[in-house]
Design brief:
alpha+beta, single chain, nine-stranded mixed beta sheet, 44% helix, 12 helices, two-stranded antiparallel ribbon, 337 residues
């Protein structure tokens, strides 16, 4: 049997531009815009969050992404920053970005906002985004948001002294916040904000900042539930990193890393789209049972990997391949805990 050398695969792959994989991802996003999406009070819930990827150490990756750290024994680390805008109720990546570590998560968030079709979405953000300057920019983009603000800030300390658990007031920036706003070239005028205090089971108080000012439509309990949905983006990152093993790169060049990153995002979104239909089939088949079920994500990923070449080779009818995929996914179920 003739052995095919590895170079027979590595050289042709670099003839495929990374933009091809980016366009594949865009096709899934366009499909999701016309989907029957799960909503919360009529809103799509989108979380913004980032992570890092360990990259192979090569001259090419170091030139592009830079050296992140070097240990005492000479062990070097090269990292890339990844950022996602993630549809929490539909387990879908609506925007993704791969960048150097020099680019912060806030900059990637602002870069991604104009690229998302989300006129009625609510952005749910962790404390890393809960600062005066970031919230000003979100409002300049006319975005609805709910984010946790750090307790160490002057504004948060003043709120903690108040007895009310749900209040609407003006956020007057501190000197440090004014300097930061000037640096980022945004307004540092006071703005109206709603703050909701939520007591966690541990006894800790978290402060949630939002511009959902209608306290009847979105009461205190609603805001607390809304922020809890943010955990979905953490689960999504777990799927794309340890489960899909995105950091096990089959390349040593920047172009290949970009290819593989967006190829993983494409696979992730395709599983979500096919899985949403499979869940409808599962609901119908198991409606007589007391326990609710959903599709097994790990098996769905395996099924999709086996069919991905059939989907993009255009040698078969795509609808037939997709129907087969949905049938497989719907047959592998797991109980919802």
């Amino acid at each position: 049997t003739e052995v095919v050398p590895g170079i027979a695969f590595t050289q042709p792959r670099y003839k495929v531009r990374p933009e091809f994989f980016m366009e594949l991802v865009k096709t899934t996003v366009l499909a999701s815009d016309n989907w029957d999406l799960q909503l919360w009070k009529g809103h799509r819930l989108i979380a913004g969050d980032g992570s890092t990827l360990n990259l192979p150490i090569t001259r090419d990756t170091l030139n592009h992404f830079g050296l992140y750290s070097e240990g005492e024994q000479g062990r070097r680390t090269c990292l890339a920053r990844v950022f996602f805008l993630y549809d929490l109720l539909n387990d879908f990546i609506v925007h993704s970005d791969l960048s150097t570590m020099k680019t912060g998560e806030k900059a990637l968030l602002m870069k991604g906002l104009p690229k998302v079709n989300d006129d009625n979405s609510i952005y749910i953000l962790d404390p890393g985004f809960g600062h005066f300057c970031t919230l000003v920019e979100l409002m300049q983009h006319q975005k609805k948001f709910c984010g946790r603000i750090p307790l160490a800030t002057t504004f948060a300390k003043s709120i903690m002294k108040k007895k009310c658990n749900d209040l609407i007031l003006d956020w007057i920036p501190s000197k440090k916040e004014i300097m930061n706003s000037r640096k980022n070239k945004v307004s540092y005028e006071p703005f109206k904000i709603r703050i909701v205090k939520v007591k966690l089971p541990s006894g800790e108080i978290e402060l949630l900042a939002t511009n959902l000012f209608n306290q009847h439509r979105y009461n205190t309990h609603d805001i607390a539930i809304l922020y809890r949905h943010r955990w979905g983006v953490e689960e999504g990152i777990k799927k794309i990193k340890p489960k899909m093993k995105i950091e096990q790169f089959g390349c040593r060049k920047t172009e290949g890393i970009i290819q593989e990153f967006y190829a993983h995002v494409f696979c992730f979104n395709m599983i979500s789209l096919a899985g949403s239909i499979a869940n409808q089939v599962i609901d119908q088949k198991t409606k007589h049972r007391k326990t609710k079920y959903k599709f097994n994500w790990q098996n769905a990923y395996r099924f999709f990997r086996e069919k991905v070449l059939r989907l993009i080779a255009f040698k078969e009818r795509i609808d037939a391949v997709v129907d087969d995929l949905i049938h497989q996914i719907a047959a592998s179920i797991t109980a919802i805990k």
